[in-house]
Amino acid sequence: MQVSDKGEAYLESREGVVLKTYRDSAGVLTIGAGLTASSGVIKPKLGMTITRAQATSLLRQALAKNYEPRVTKAMPGAKQNEFDGGLSFDFNTGAIDRATWVKQWVTGASAASVRASLGAWNKAGGKVLPGLKRRRAEEADIILADKWPADLRIAQASVEPGYYAEFVVSVTAEEIVAIRDGFRKTGYEPGDAATKVLRSAVDKFQADHGLTVDGKIGKATLSTLQRELDARSKTKTAAGTAATGTAVTTGADVITPPPAPPSVDLPAVEPSTLSDHALSLAGWIGIVALVVGSLWLAYLAWHYRDIIAARMAKRLPKTATWLRSF
Fold this sequence. Notes:
The chain is mainly alpha-helical. It is about 55% helix and about 5% strand.
């Protein structure tokens, strides 16, 4: 069984279609409708670009190779809308073979049970994400009622052409608030309009981070914004860890071992010897903590090298280009 035109349009609108390679929020090179090297149909490389037609073609190849066969097997006898909804779920989670809702659907469980189990797949990193919560609700509507979103792409407000950025992926009002806050936190003022983002801010962010400068807020821009926020948060945490490690070596933190029980015959040990041992142990703990903190900082520098490149692009353009090359 194959995805319908409507199902394909839904996938592209929710995944977002990016025509230049970017790093997703986990740092994986991605292009088109969320395609990575694991798709088996393309190996994204930095600087690679594709056309809109190629993006759709690659998506169809990935669906035919990786998703349509297993959704067909997991949902025998599915109607087109049921198949399309299941395909969207599997493309997003890769869990069609183990999800409880699928087993319930196959055995004819109530619509309420299927909807509840499907809706449980709304977390990433242990946190409920509004975007995933909304997508699961939409998939449930598609599967159970053949009910599709009124607009497969977010309805754009009537604004001055070119003055505000355009959202090219579906977002809620709550997500727009978070996006505006993210731009502001990273130094790109989004403007005063509560439901919009200034195009000038988006253009500058895209230029600084090596993205296609088009004033469109899509998957690449949002993933890069999330990486920028994550890098700031994790670097701050790592720096605190390293600082804590150096502080462990202070003498005030030395703990004196408790006396041995009377029944244990231990040789006499001078208090000064115990203190020396404790100080030595505290010193080693401090060194280990410092090394671990330093290694974590080094890992973060590698993992977020594209973000570091954006920050040094003006002063060290060649170094920034080198950091973005791998």
